Amino acid sequence: MTKTIYWKTSLRLWHDFEKTNDQQEKYEVREFYFEYRLNENLNFLIGKKINLWARSDEMSPLDFITPENYSYFLLWDRSQRVTGTYNIEASYYWENNNQVQLILFPYKQTSTFAPPSSNWHPTQYPLSWHDHTDYRQVELAAKYSKNLSQTDLDLIYFRGYHPFAQPALESSGFLATDEIHNTYALALAQAFENHNIRFELSYQDKGAWVNQKTLQKQVDKKIEINLGIDYLFPNDLYVNIQYVHHDFLQEDGPTDSYWLVQAQNSFFNDSLKASIKVGYSDKGNNGTLVNPQLEYQWAGQYQLRLGGFVFAGNNPYGLFSQYQNNDLAYLEFHYLF
Amino acid sequence: MKALLFIFITTIISSHCSAQEKLDGKAIAQKAYNVEDGSSLQATMEMTIAEKEEITKTRTLLIKRRDSDSGDQVRIEVCEPQLLKGTAFLVWNQRNESNSLWLYLPSQKQARRLSSSSQYQSFIGSDFSYDDLTKINLNDHSFKRLSDQNGDYVIDVFPNDPHSKAPTKRRVWIDHNNFMIKKIELYKKDELIKVFETLKLETIDNILTITHSQMRDLKENRQTNLTLKNISYNKEIKGSSFRATALTKGGCP
Predict the structure, then answer these.
(1) Hey, is the C-beta of A193 within 8 angstroms of any chain B C-beta?
(2) Domain extents for chain B?
(3) Residue B233 pLDDT more than 90?
(4) Which of A193, A302, A335 would best serve as a mutation to test chain B binding (most B beta carbons within 10 A)?
């Protein structure tokens, strides 16, 4: 009998020595789903699953269907921050290089932020957040993907709403308002001889943000651009440059952009990897982030990481500079079984 | 447009070529490509990486290959060790276009396209590059036949693009009788950097198959051995295995 039903589960346990959040989960079911492969062209899936649609890296406008744990900001890389959503999903393939994917999200699932008592609480959100959650929800996502000779193309549609916490200054509570929004996005990945270019463009017909002066929610159209270049040098030095731009199409709406540059090289038969990540945000949010890291792997099951984060800048609302007092070093041990 | 498949090259034992002396370098390469290798292949590959002849790493890989309308497609997936499990490499060898390559890393949960030069990087820490595991495009290379040695054809293969990151020269030894590759020397700027050798040939399903091969990195004093097991030819392999969008779906047992 042909095997047609597959399942997968992924768990995570951790202990927060810093007590960043007393309510912080110490365990998490990241994925648990069943997949039914009806035939070669049509698959169905139900359960909790991580969907990463970004062609580029870091804070992609295409990845907000997947909740992330921002309690530690960028201290966890994206693969560690993301967690699954409860999905009902169908995928249809044809001609070997075309795919349509349709996902329904029946339950509310949100990203997680550190609470106001934490050093990692984002100052861009001046008041406490209801459930410390994200501000946009997706109830339907659809993607068409095509693999051309040297190009990968995605056309994406999201339908969602803002369970946005309307700040109520006279109390500590919030009045949630639902604003339906539609997002249309395009993603391209193009391979060249020595480098790849990844480009993402997203247009959201109702983007929500907090006006720092009035502490009131504002709703406006929003454009996000993410441009990434990977370059591989002859000595195997890998460099990844990301440019991220957010723009609310309103006169006093916020505009921000930042750069992330990552360089990595491997040594001793790929056992040792050295990398450094540098982030720079501009547009009045001047600030920098520096993250050097060494990773050592052995015996096929063990990883040891040593690294640190240094934040700089004076702007208390800057993407990186707001954490200027949070410099740290870390040592991680990973065991895979 | 044809290509040489270095690692999985197979053939039905063919009759001796009576006109061998008349063949030029490209014709020999073309014949090496044209040997029978089945419409599909599925096998388990055991990879051992040794430094100074002491085995330091082992890998188990699942390999699938099939002919397609536009060329052929190869998928290689890491089954062991756990640290690399699920890592998958996909290449579409296309007759009239450049090869398309994708690499899937489980942590990223999405297949990422590799740039052309990336294919000359080490494949999962071995002495084989991604390029060594795929075909070269004959139209992108020029060939020069040298004097035969010990009953083998010897040809030099050069990339036509002077800016290519490919080896600047490959010297290839090909068996007179069956056009199987016996040895390849890979040069960078006239310096011999790696040597591939066929260590064992077996006939499986009437197809002559390299079941044991070795790549030696002379600069690093390392070597990687590949052993093919559980080989099956000409069985239907679903096209879904060769979709870039479906590399997330692992095939390891």
Answers:
(1) yes
(2) 3-246
(3) yes
(4) A193
